[in-house]
TrEMBL record:
<keyword id="KW-0479">Metal-binding</keyword>
<dbReference type="InterPro" id="IPR049730">
    <property type="entry name" value="SNF2/RAD54-like_C"/>
</dbReference>
<dbReference type="InterPro" id="IPR000330">
    <property type="entry name" value="SNF2_N"/>
</dbReference>
<dbReference type="GO" id="GO:0016787">
    <property type="term" value="F:hydrolase activity"/>
</dbReference>
<dbReference type="Pfam" id="PF00271">
    <property type="entry name" value="Helicase_C"/>
</dbReference>
<dbReference type="GO" id="GO:0005524">
    <property type="term" value="F:ATP binding"/>
</dbReference>
<keyword id="KW-0378">Hydrolase</keyword>
<dbReference type="InterPro" id="IPR038718">
    <property type="entry name" value="SNF2-like_sf"/>
</dbReference>
<keyword id="KW-0863">Zinc-finger</keyword>
<dbReference type="Pfam" id="PF00176">
    <property type="entry name" value="SNF2-rel_dom"/>
</dbReference>
<keyword id="KW-0862">Zinc</keyword>
<dbReference type="InterPro" id="IPR014001">
    <property type="entry name" value="Helicase_ATP-bd"/>
</dbReference>
<dbReference type="Pfam" id="PF04434">
    <property type="entry name" value="SWIM"/>
</dbReference>
<feature type="domain" description="Helicase ATP-binding">
    <location>
        <begin position="649"/>
        <end position="810"/>
    </location>
</feature>
<dbReference type="GO" id="GO:0008270">
    <property type="term" value="F:zinc ion binding"/>
</dbReference>
<dbReference type="InterPro" id="IPR007527">
    <property type="entry name" value="Znf_SWIM"/>
</dbReference>
<dbReference type="Pfam" id="PF08455">
    <property type="entry name" value="SNF2_assoc"/>
</dbReference>
Length: 1098
């Protein structure tokens, strides 16, 4: 068929598919031109179109080959799923087809793409929601003057039960003053929702456009019916009947069938409304019933019939309406009963069925009395015929349990008591008659409850007793079951058995005092548990057992997590067996750990001596210590620096060490100089300061500035010069200053000397315990040692261990122990217990203050990320190298694995980072420019013109040379510093810059990132990002420190669409991992993982 071709489709065929209203509206839609994008699929009689209604709907129609008959149709509007017949949108499409106003799919140059219904589950779900949304939308009400008198709905409830199966339904009456029977519920729902008026009689026509249901129960019932209708539609739709027509599975004739769930919803609704309603059940006449909350008074009778029993329901009418017997109809009332009541009543009503009595055989009478009657009496009054009382005697049960040990387990002998009769149910003869001569009715349920305790815990009958040989099961029985068993029996214990066979771990009192040798004397008191058994208890706890058995056979329950602290402390002492505890002496440094542990762990009671309390108080509160700084520095020190000096002095007084971990720029050097001046004594060995080469002369300058009376000696130069300088310095100097590099070479000269104090500046230099520098400093001897570093942790917790291994050797035990006890649980398992325990160890010996906390007068620091585009040529180079880098990375991993490929991978990444900075860094003939260098030129030109003074950091010294060349072209002067700059020259250039000699200072990140005071700058530019943000922060702190008067801008240059963006994201991720071990705000950085590096190549 082609455009304009007439289809032999008659009006009557279209009209027959729909009702009058849909047909009229469809014809109007056709005339209004609401059908768009009409196409016929090639080779078929399938037509698709978009029809504009309240929104656009997709419509499909299939004709027969002759084009005369309509074989199938469908529409995405809500009405298509809810009503029989064609909707107005289908009618409109058929009228267009009839007129031949369509095109073959593919005709024309701009033919619209036909709609094809998606078949995925997500499309089905959204289509369903769209189709039924209007059912949930609130109905728009007409103005009050146009609304009709409210309509009332009256429900009639019908209930039948046949052969144990229930059948219930509702019928409704509707009206205003007079109520009419609703003879077709399905037609009513369909017409009402379609907006079609419904005639019930001469005096009642319901127009959905103006009708309003009466407030209260009528409105509630309407919403209930609406919910059922939606459920019906949804069940058909979910069942795969797309476009299917309702077949009336719930709405059938004048009945609305109630499923079990719908029944409960209806009854709950009527109870909530407190509305009586008409009901007819079984053969009973229809009457008014109400629903109440509570339980009915039920009456049963047990009579004798020729030796048998006859149990009869005396209450007039009793039946449960729902499957769970939560709603119980008793005469004219429906009771909504509690779950326990319904559970007990349900089997009784189920046994009665449709009958009102049932027979109990003569031989079953005793079993009925002992097992069934107690259950029935929970829900009903039972009148028992006198004849039964003459033959049977129901007696109450009391029981006794006798406990004794049985190997590693326990044995229990039972004894049941019925009045004066006592017997062992597992041995001997069981009595059948009561003392009165009547048949004894035992408490079967009570006996079964007692047996259940032993069965649950694996007891077996043996020689008239229940026995359990398994120790673990025996513990669980005593710990869990015995307290409950004791509530229903009398429990007796054999002489060897304890009345309390399971005990909680008693609090442990630890006595601690400080002797004349400054060692801790420690004693333990754990009530009835001696130290040998205490060690066993804690060993069981470490093995995650739930109990420990003592020598006397009793059990100690170990489920209490408070034992963790005690176990931690015992382990910290190194005690392995009881003999080790006869005379426990610990280093004084354990005092603060033990004090913190006792305050956090309620299972430990610490009996502290006066001296112990005094030492702990001094170290924890150095401000309160009576330690005065030298008079010459009292006016120089800030309050927090005074605290730092007191803290150093207190630790040194007890020959303890620590880490002064203040933020960069807070004057750690000044605090140490104050300490050195205050503790200078005639005839005492000198102190030793070990610093990076770049800071050696800075120490000398600071000493000459703040404490010129201190005799400071630098040991530097050639081997001969160092030996010549060291010898007199050991005799006359107050402080000797050397470098890590020189110390490593001269360790044979230093290790035989004893110093008063040792200070390691930038102590992260010994973070790797395997380096020669770390090994060298750990050979030094002093009364007390201290470390100065703003970043005691950069990559791993082992770095912290290495520093403590220098300060107080053995305090954190061996590296292997530290890794298994702390590092692995904290880093990999995120174990909060391990974190808390390590904090107890280290926090007293780390003093860290941040600028934002102690320097209110310090100006603001503003950080900005500045992103630059690459030049066109730079982008081409980067892309080519990135593709090659991905291939090399994958090949390297495949060939050697991640662990052995780190160096090669780092080289690959470095190339990409260099291209992001400037491809000319390693491509000699490259002339395509650098987007980042161009941005730097713009920023620097504007900043210098505005009077700013700038530090520019890069990790690539060749990049600094390129920047210098660009500055030369711009005629801007600058200072320069990298690793090749001699120490004295470094100091001169720093002084000149701070004095205002040049507006720019180019600095190698590695060489100048620490130890320099460059407060003359007010802008810091990080030209290229480094993996570790802490290193960048250190560099920034060259300018943002004490003495800075101006706000500091920190600019981080990032090249767009390069690896630099991912490095920046990695930095932000690492900053978010808060360092629990130092203080909130410090960065805890893990080494790059394989996953993190792989992500860089994505």
């Amino acid at each position: 068929m082609r455009k304009g071709e007439i289809v032999l489709l008659k009006d009557s065929a279209i009209h027959e598919l729909s009702n009058d209203m849909s047909y009229r509206k469809g014809c109007r839609y056709f005339k209004d031109g609401r059908v768009a994008k009409l196409l016929r699929r090639p080779g078929t009689s399938i037509y698709v179109a978009t029809v504009e209604g309240s929104e656009d709907y997709e419509v499909r129609v299939r004709l027969d080959k002759a084009g005369e008959k309509i074989e199938a149709y469908d529409c995405t509007c809500p009405a298509a799923a809810l009503y029989n017949g064609a909707c107005k949108h289908v009618v409109a499409l058929l009228k267009v087809i009839q007129a031949g106003q369509f095109e073959e799919e593919g005709e024309g140059t701009a033919a619209p793409v036909p709609y094809q219904k998606p078949t995925g589950r997500i499309f089905d779900c959204f289509a369903r929601a769209k189709k039924h949304a209007h059912l949930n939308a609130p109905k728009k009400l007409l103005p009050a003057a146009l609304r009709e008198t409210p309509i009332f709905l009256e429900p009639h409830f019908f209930f039948e039960r046949h052969y144990g199966r229930s059948n219930c339904w509702l019928e409704f009456r509707i009206g205003r003053e007079r109520l009419y029977v609703m003879r077709s519920m399905q037609e009513f729902m369909r017409s009402f929702l379609a907006g079609t008026p419904i005639e019930f009689g001469k005096k009642l026509t319901v127009d959905p456009q103006t009708a309003v249901f009466a407030p209260g129960i009528s409105t509630m019932l309407w919403h209930f019916l609406l919910d059922l209708w939606k459920d019906e539609v949804s069940s058909l739709y979910y069942g795969g009947a797309y476009g299917a027509r309702l077949s009336g599975t719930i709405f059938e004739g004048k009945a609305v069938k109630l499923t079990p769930s719908a029944l409960v919803r209806f009854l709950s609704l009527m109870q909530e409304a407190d509305a009586p309603f008409q009901a007819r059940t079984g053969v009973h006449e229809e009457r008014t019933v109400e629903i109440v909350e509570g339980t009915p008074a039920l009456e049963l009778g047990l009579v004798e019939r020729a030796g048998s029993g006859r149990l009869m329901m005396l209450t007039d009418e009793v039946c449960y309406l729902d499957d769970d017997a939560h709603f119980l109809l008793v005469e004219d009332t429906i009771y909504h009963v509690p779950p326990a009541f319904s559970a007990a009543l349900h089997p009784l009503l189920e046994a009665f069925g449709s009958s009102r009595s049932l027979t109990i055989a003569a031989q079953d009478i005793p079993a009925f009395f002992s097992t069934i009657l107690p259950e029935i009496e929970k829900v009903a009054e039972v009148e028992i015929a006198p004849a039964f009382a003459e033959r049977y005697e129901i007696m109450p049960l009391s029981a006794a349990v006798y406990l004794d040990y049985h190997g590693d387990g326990i044995a229990a002998r039972l004894e049941f008591h019925y009045d004066e009769m006592k017997f062992n149910p597992l041995a001997g003869k069981v009595p059948q008659e009561a003392p009165s001569g009547r048949r004894l009715i035992r408490d079967a349920a009570g006996e079964a409850a007692i047996f259940a305790f032993f069965d649950t815990y694996g007891f077996l009958p043996e020689d008239g007793r229940f026995v359990q040989s398994d120790e673990a099961q025996s513990f669980l029985f005593l710990d869990e079951a015995l307290p409950e068993l004791s509530k229903i029996t009398d429990v007796y214990y054999a002489d060897a058995f304890h009345e309390k066979p399971v005990r909680r771990m008693p609090p442990v009192t630890i006595g601690v005092s400080v002797n004349d040798e400054n060692l801790l004397d420690v004693t333990f008191d754990a009530a009835h548990i001696d130290f040998a058994e205490l060690i066993g208890v804690l060993r069981s706890y470490r093995e995650k057992r739930v109990y420990h058995r003592l020598k006397d056979g009793t059990f100690v329950t170990l489920g209490d997590q408070q034992l963790a602290g005690l176990a931690d402390f015992i382990e910290s002492t190194g005690i392995k067996k009881a003999t080790d505890a006869q005379n426990i002496r610990l280093p004084l440094r354990q005092a603060l750990y033990l004090d913190a542990l006792a305050k956090e762990d309620k299972s430990i009671r610490l009996a502290r001596s006066k001296r112990f309390k005094s030492i702990v108080r001094d170290i924890k509160n150095p401000v309160d210590a009576d330690i005065e700084p030298p008079e010459t520095l009292k006016g120089v020190l800030r309050d927090y620096q005074q605290t730092g000096f007191s803290w150093l002095s207190t630790l040194a007084a007890y020959r303890l060490g620590g880490i002064l971990a203040d933020d960069m720029g807070l004057g750690k050097t000044l605090q140490v100089i104050t300490f050195l001046l205050a503790h200078r004594e005639e005839g005492r060995p000198p102190a030793l300061v070990v610093a990076p080469t770049s800071l050696m002369y800075n120490w000398l300058e600071e000493i000459e500035k703040f404490a010129p009376e201190l005799k400071a000696s630098i040991v530097a130069g050639t081997k001969a010069e160092r030996e010549a300088a060291l010898s007199p310095a050991l005799k006359d100097a107050d402080v000797i200053i050397t470098t890590y590099h020189m110390l490593r070479r001269d360790i044979d000269l230093y290790e035989k000397e004893h110093f008063s104090h040792i200070f390691l500046d930038e102590a992260q230099q010994i973070k790797n315990p395997a380096t020669q520098a770390a090994k060298a400093v750990k050979k030094l001897q002093a009364d007390a040692a201290f470390a100065l570093t703003g970043t005691p942790i950069e990559n791993s917790l082992t770095e912290l261990w290495s520093i403590f291994d220098f300060l107080m050797p053995g305090y954190l035990k061996s590296r292997k122990h530290f890794q298994s006890q702390f590092e692995t649980p904290i880093v990999r398992a995120k174990d909060p217990h391990a974190s808390a325990d390590l904090l107890r160890y280290i926090s007293p010996f780390i003093l860290r203050r941040l600028k934002k906390d102690v320097l209110e007068e310090l100006p603001d620091k503003v950080e900005r990320k500045m992103t630059n585009e690459m030049t066109d040529e730079q982008r081409k180079v980067y892309h080519a190298w990135f593709v090659q880098a991905k291939k090399e990375f994958a090949a390297e991993l495949k060939a050697h694995g991640f662990g052995e490929s780190r160096i090669k991978i780092l080289a690959i990444l470095t190339r990409l980072r260099q291209i992001a900075c400037d491809p000319a860094l390693f491509l000699e003939d490259y002339t395509g420019g650098s987007g980042k260098l161009d941005m730097l030129e713009e920023v620097v030109a504007d900043a210098v013109a505005a009077g700013h003074r700038i530090l520019i950091f890069s990790q690539f010294t060749t990049m600094l040379s390129h920047i210098a060349a660009r500055l030369d072209v711009m005629n801007l002067s600058y200072a320069y510093l990298d690793g090749s700059t001699p120490a004295l020259e470094r100091m001169r250039r720093v002084r000149d810059f701070n004095a205002g000699a040049e507006p720019l200072f180019l600095i190698s990140l590695k060489a100048g990132g620490t130890g320099l005071n460059l407060t003359g700058a007010d802008m810091v530019i990080h030209y290229d990002p480094w993996w570790n943000p802490a290193v960048e922060d250190q560099a920034t702190d060259r300018a943002y420190r004490i003495g800075q008067k101006n706000n500091v801008q920190v600019l981080k240059f990032i090249t767009k669409d390069t690896i630099e963006e991912k490095i920046y994201e990695l930095q932000e991720k690492k900053k978010a991992l808060i360092d629990q071990m130092i203080q909130p705000g410090e960065n805890f950085l893990s080494k790059l993982s394989e996953e993190e590096i792989t992500a860089l190549f994505q």
